[in-house]
Design a protein that fits this description.
CATH class of the largest domain: Alpha Beta
Largest sheet: 4 strands, mixed
Number of domains: 2
Strand order of the largest sheet: 3-2-1-4
CATH architecture of the largest domain: 2-Layer Sandwich
Helix content: 25-40%
Number of strands: 6
Order of helices and strands: HEEEHEHHEHHEH
Structural class: alpha/beta
Distance between the termini: 35 Å
Length: 189
């Protein structure tokens, strides 16, 4: 999406958008080796780093976080630089803070447990469910990963099936495989 397209989208969908004023929520996209990511940053941190369509993410953020959304490269570029460093193999842990407002309370617990899975390692859905004290909640844990609004930054790609299968991923199987290969901690068959 070009800056002009983003400006037009913002004028139509965000009544509070004022063009030159710095937005409450900085919004942009970036192309990565695993596809386009939609990024949104609030004063608290990254609220979205998602493979979903930018219109879908924009509407969700507008509904659940705030309506004054717009481009602000000075706030989004630090996240973009960390993503670039990650994909270049120079960054193993993101330092950009996460704003969890697009995640349910249960989802936050799941994502916090996931954050303990180090770079180059994997965990199973069952292991994450056990870590949060809900060993029978496999479907709910899986759903929390599927709705992770901050992909890659909170590494849901590091969760695999008990038998060693990749499992699902918001960016698709090829993206998940690429990320696991990049980190080198999982033998891809």
């Amino acid at each position: 999406m070009s800056t002009g397209d983003l400006e037009a989208l913002l004028r139509v969908t965000a009544p509070g958008y004022q063009g030159e004023s710095p937005p409450d929520i900085a919004f942009d996209t970036t192309d990565t080796p695993v596809g386009r990511l939609v990024m949104a940053v609030t004063s608290r941190g990254v609220v979205a780093c998602s493979f979903e369509d930018e219109h879908t993410i924009f509407a969700r953020i507008s509904r659940e976080v705030g309506r004054f959304i717009g481009p602000d490269p000075s706030r989004v570029d630090p996240l973009r630089r960390e993503l670039d460093a990650y994909f270049a193999g120079r960054l193993k842990t993101f330092s950009f803070p996460v704003d969890p407002r697009l995640t349910s309370q249960f989802g936050r617990a799941v994502l916090q447990a996931l954050a303990t899975v180090p770079y180059g390692s994997v965990a199973t859905y069952e292991e994450i469910a056990a870590r949060i004290g809900r060993p029978q909640a496999l479907r709910a844990v899986s759903n929390a990963f599927a709705s992770n609004p901050v992909c890659i930054v909170v590494p849901c790609h590091r969760v695999i099936e008990t038998g060693g299968g990749l499992g699902g991923y918001a960016g698709g199987a090829a993206a998940k495989e690429h990320l696991l290969r990049l980190e080198g901690g999982y033998p891809i068959r």
